[in-house]
Each structure stands twice: as structure tokens, then as C-alpha cells.
Amino acid sequence: LNKIGLAAIFVCLSLISVGQDVAKDAKSKAQEFSSSSGKLIEKEWARLGAIKDMKVSAVRYRDLITANSVSAMRIEMDVKDKYTTDTKIAEVDKDEIDGLLKSLDIIKREVSTTKRERYTEIVFTSRTGFQAGCYYEDQKGVWSVFVKIERFDKDSYVFMTPEDLDGLILLVKGALAQMG
Known about the structure:
alpha+beta, four-stranded antiparallel β-sheet, 4 helices, 37% strand, globular
């Protein structure tokens, strides 16, 4: 390869790695609001309950200087291995909750009652990479419902029964009600 070709490859690889870093560090609007400088931030949590190992809260960030506020649903889960515990955290902004609720309802009422000929995935993804979805295992003929708390973390999956999905829907509705 000549110098121009090597330079082009280097630039492309650099752009790809920068793009991946940005996606990994994606923040919710609430996280951006609460971490910006020049503000006196009050953080208020309304603990709503738990489903499986996930704790669900509604969180409100308020700038005490300007009285502006932003709300989100926060999901936390402790993942333990032999020696350590790692807390997985996701925040779903208030403006994303309606889409999440509609997605969970479609999965429950329409998707999970169907059969597919091929392996199929259906996924809702928030700004931060939180996912709720399902996949159809064509060889078994069943849907599996899941939540993935962190985008690039294989240990943040939570698999759910239909009853767990009902409980999650109630918690998400509770979070939305707390946000006002």
C-alpha cells in the first residue's frame, strides 16, 4: 500500500474508534442536565419497587438556582461474581417513557402471541442504550423477553416471564406518574 492508502485506512479506523467511544458514553438528557457545571443540583429519588434483580426509581434533578428540572426512570442492578459486585445503571428520560410503555405493550399483547418462521428480534433502545425487547427462537417456537441495562455489557441482561413483564409495565407506569 502506498502512503495515501495507509493514511486513509488510519483515518477510517480512527473515526470508527471515536464513534464507538461516543456511543459507549451516551448520556440521557437527565444525566447531562445533572452533570453540567455551574448548577446547584438536587437529586430526588422515588423508589418504586423491584422486578427480578432490577430496582426501579423515578429520579428528578432540579437546579436550585434556576428551578429548572428534568426527570427520568432509573434502573439499577447489582451483578455479583466471585470477588466483586458491579452495579449496572440505566436512565430512561421522561420523553422516552411513552415509547417504552408502547413497546412493552406491543410485545405483551401482539408480538408474544405470534409464531415466526425465522429467528426474529424486536428491540426498543433508549438514548443511553437501555434495551427492552424479545426474540423468537424458531427452533423452540417461543419468544423470550429481556431487558438489557447497559448497551455494551453482556452481564446486564435480565430475562423475564410474562408475569415479570406485567410487573415491569406497572413499575414504568409508576415512574411516569411520579414524574408528573
